[in-house]
Design goal:
The complex is a heterodimer of chains A (510) and B (363). Chain A is an alpha+beta fold. Chain A has 4 domains: 11-217, Heat Shock Protein 90 (2-Layer Sandwich), CATH 3.30.565.10; 235-303, Helicase, Ruva Protein, domain 3; 312-450, Ribosomal Protein S5, domain 2 (2-Layer Sandwich); 455-509. Helix content of chain A is 38%, strand content 20%. Chain A contains 13 helices and 14 strands. Chain A has helices spanning 11-17, 27-47, 88-93, 113-125, 182-199, 240-249, 255-262, 268-278, 291-303, 320-331, 388-394, 434-486, 495-509, and strands at residues 54-64, 70-78, 129-134, 140-149, 154-164, 171-180, 204-208, 214-217, 335-340, 344-346, 349-359, 370-375, 378-380, 409-417. In chain A, the strands form 2 sheets. An 8-stranded mixed β-sheet of chain A has the order 5-4-3-6-2-1-7-8. In chain A, strands 9, 10, 11, 12, 13 and 14 form a 6-stranded mixed β-sheet that branches. In chain A, helix 2 (27-47) packs parallel to helix 5 and helix 11 (388-394) packs parallel to helix 12. Chain A is globular and about 110 Å long. Chain B folds into 2 domains: 8-49 and 60-141, Orthogonal Bundle (Arc Repressor Mutant, subunit A), CATH 1.10.10; 189-361, Dna Topoisomerase Vi A Subunit, Chain: A, domain 2 (3-Layer(aba) Sandwich). Chain B has helices at residues 8-32, 75-93, 100-109, 117-131, 179-182, 200-208, 211-214, 228-241, 253-264, 287-292, 302-313, 321-333, 349-361; strands at 38-42, 49-52, 57-60, 64-68, 98-99, 140-141, 147-149, 152-155, 165-167, 175-176, 185-189, 193-197, 217-221, 245-248, 281-284, 298-299, 335-336. A 6-stranded mixed β-sheet of chain B has the order 10-7-13-12-14-15, with helices on both faces. In chain B, strands 9-8-11 form a 3-stranded antiparallel β-sheet, with no helix packed on it. The longest helix of chain B is centred in the N-terminal third of the chain and has 25 residues, at 8-32. The chains are: A alpha+beta (510), B alpha/beta (363). Chains A and B meet through helix 12 of A and helix 1 and helix 2 of B.
Chain lengths: 510, 363
Amino acid sequence: MAQATFEEISASDFFYRNRDIAGFSNPSRAIFVAIREIVENALDAAESQMIPPDVYVRLSFESEATKDTQIYKLRIEDNGSGIQPRFIPSAFGQVLYGSKYKLKQTRGTFGLGGKMALLYGQITTHQPASVTSSTGNQNKIYSFKLMIDIQRNRPIILDRKVLINKDNWRGTIIEFTLEGDYLRAMPKILDYFKQTAMVNPYANLTFVDPKGRLYKWMRVTTAMPEPPKETLPHPYGVDVEMLQRLIYVTTDTSMTDFLRHNFHRVGGITAQKFLEFSGLTPSKNPKKLAHEEIVKLTQNLKKFKDFLPPDASCLSPLGEELLRAGIQKELNPEYLVVHQRKPSTYAGHPFIVEMGIAYGGGVPKTGGFVIYRFANRIPLLYDEASDVSYRVIGSMNWRRYKVSPEMPIAIVVHICSTKVPYKTVGKEFIADRAEIRREVANELREVSRQLGHFLARREHVDKEKKRLSIFAKYLPRIAEFATKLAGKERVPDINKLLKSVQKYGEDEQK
Amino acid sequence: MGKTSKSSIAEKKHDVVNRLKLLGTDIYEQLDKGVFPTINIPSRSTENINYDPNIRQYILGERVVSRSARNIRHVKPFTQLAWAALFSNELTTQRKTSTLRDVYYSAQAYEMSFTDQQESNNIITDLETLTGFRREDFNIFPEERSAIFGDLNIEYTVPGYEGKTLNLTSHPDGVLIGPALTSSEFVSTNADKVIAIEKGALFTRFIEENVHNKHKSLLISCGGQAPRQTRAFIRRLHDELNLPVYIFTDGDPWGMHIAQVIISGSANAAHLRELNTPDAIWSGVWATDIVDYKLPTDPLDEVDIKRLYELQRDPRYQNDPLWQREIKMFLKIKRKAEQEAFSRYGLTYIVDEYLPKKLKETK
């Protein structure tokens, strides 16, 4: 009889063994994901302090690795909040440690990606990462050289330096080496920056690639969206495990207080109604609930119909003005309309859909629509065809809006939520959930209607111009031929006739 | 026998030029008044084409279409029509000839664009309808040609040949019925009839066999469906020289209809007059001839039979019992025969036996 051996593996170890699911599946993808994850952290760090982000990314060639891959050094600097020195080792050297476990809209989900990038770098190059940061409050800059103890999921501090912060610098600089294939990743990386610039029009992004080429995306505004507020979980979104934890840490001694203090938009009256609904006495001590009662309670939390829907203060949509500014600066279209839907929810998670539709001008002419998808301000660049927006766009009756498929049209979809329903850990496309599909479809109709009006108006103006040009072309010839045929000398004046069609035309254009 | 009508050609040219000038003046005056010029053209739509039993041809009804330079869809064809009128005027006054193909290309020299040949042809037809003159009267001739042979003296009116005369027996292949001939005046003839023949081969046989002398006739090769100018020319021979016209075609529905178009005209030319010769006679080959002369035959195929039923209902086939009788006979025997079928009795049989008999029979 074979004996199965069980061993506990650390979180680092788990991700080491399963790095594919975090997006580090091949050398070109890995380099793209590493840049993306750290840039997102950098943007979050600046936005949380309402500082317009300045992010500088430099990828430099170190050495050849294999036939197709090279070793690169990646350096990313931001002007964000900075990190307290005592948190730095864990923040970068311990997987599943971070500031992103509360409920509010953030770019990442678990604060996992940045560490995965460092972990991937360590696995492929066996070099330590360096992290330099200052919160700007002290006069000091802290600089660490770190590695991750993969088996124990602990940071190893190789070096620690304290520098004087003469210029009052604030921000974080991360530098590490990794193996990758830049040439193949290049188009996606440039797309990523361009699209990031589109939904972060208040950010300066700089990228220096291994060939020394400098790319810059400059901000066009310093206005920033309201940062999201932290909220309590909504009853519809709670599971047994979460409920148990909440009960474990609560100091409340009655169910009424427990519900009021731990759940989003639950007050005294709602709590009372709910307890009645689920047959619990309001004075019951939550800590006395049996396991079966907790399971039952979780089920009832989902069944009860009278909870108020979650409010969207925990969300930070871009807003129509910023979305417009971003699309305008990156695409410079002939016509642009943007719109934001009212908040909606799915499974207890609030979400907001924002959309822009751009026509002509700098919109790339690909022979089809260009779709730019964003979730919590992250560009989604892969698996477009699986995304809910792609499907909604594809099933739309475009003829109603005078749109034909070969028109130069770009559609920008931004979905923000405390929990974006990604289909995969790689955060590449959004699941086709009924509530989200409906909101995306309604929003698409809204902007398409306005585009349709624009196209109809333009078609009318074009037709009118064409109409006038036809009269302008032929009337003089009729006059010329008739004059010759009649044997006259003087050609009749047709300007009055031309003017009469023109005036008619101008009226129509108004 | 002398010529009957003096200078019909010169008179017509004069009328044509006047009519075109009138059109120009009409447009000019409307423009000069500061209004968008409008012209009314008889409608050529099928609902407006009627058969007139009195003059025995298709004619256009009362309906007119108004073409206005105010209308965005009309302004281009209006301009094209004005150009076509000017171009025709220049052709006529400068005594130059042209073809439909020429018209299409000449337009480009005036920076007038026609989308295709069909569009320019339509405009010329509009001009015909509007003025009531044939395009040949504007010196615009089709490419298609046919020939005439026989004792007729003509006098040219074309530049460089004015006053010159020609006897139409001068060339054994016949003389082309082209612009120079159709614009000639008739001087004199000894012929007492016209024989129009569907096929060129038989035309040549008739000349070889001296039919023009034996039967004192002018021979015309139609070359299948007779071109408009040939039909107009036959009409002139009939009207100006008082010659009866006999038509010989293949013994099938198509040959029968070739004769009918010479006699009654076509719906396509309903806007024009004097393209047909109502008094002309279809002398053969009839279906009854096929039976009487025991000609070698081919069976009628499906399209032939379908065509016969169409012709049976055609108003042009109602005025003479001959047509209905022959259609019925074709449908009965379900056979057809070509003119060449007479060769089974020897090459000259058709000239020596059949022709005299039929001329007598249909006189």
